[in-house]
Amino acid sequence: MKHRDQLYTLGVWTVKAGQESTFVAEWDAFAKWTAKSHPAAGDAYLLKDAEHPQQFISFGPWDSPEAVKAWRERPEFKVFVRREQSADRRSFGSSEPHFKSDCRETITLRGTLFCL
Fold first, then answer.
1. CA 96, 99, 104 angle in degrees (round to 5)?
2. Is 1 contained in some domain?
3. What is the DSSP letter of 78?
4. Which of 24, 12, 95, 26 shows the shortest CA–CA distance to 57?
5. Which residues fall within 8 angstroms of residue 89, CB to CB, at 6 or more apart?
6. Which of 16, 32, 50, 57 is most buried, with most CB under 10 Å away?
7. Per-residue pLDDT of the chain (116 residues; tens, 9 = 90+)
8. Domain of 69?
């Protein structure tokens, strides 16, 4: 990994059966809005668990904690998260505000991302 002190946001999502494609499309639109609206955001990634297709992990790098805070304060962010947490559509796992990577590299094994 090139930047050992890189700041990331992380989301763990569990999607209700039959809603996977809708979730991916909505997440993709949200990621595109983020990239366009927030130059401090790096490329965002969405991983789908191969054995549990209703489980996803999203993550992406950021330039600073202040940029993450500003992003999370935007109405668009709040609308997206509120919609994805909606009980009749999806269940939301957890979200860590950010972490610094201590990984030498990452691998995906049976749909799970591991830090080495």
1. 130
2. no
3. H
4. 12
5. 16, 19, 83
6. 57
7. 455 678 888 888 888 888 889 889 999 999 999 999 999 999 999 999 888 888 888 999 999 989 999 999 999 988 888 887 774 545 444 443 334 344 445 555 444 444 44
8. 7-115
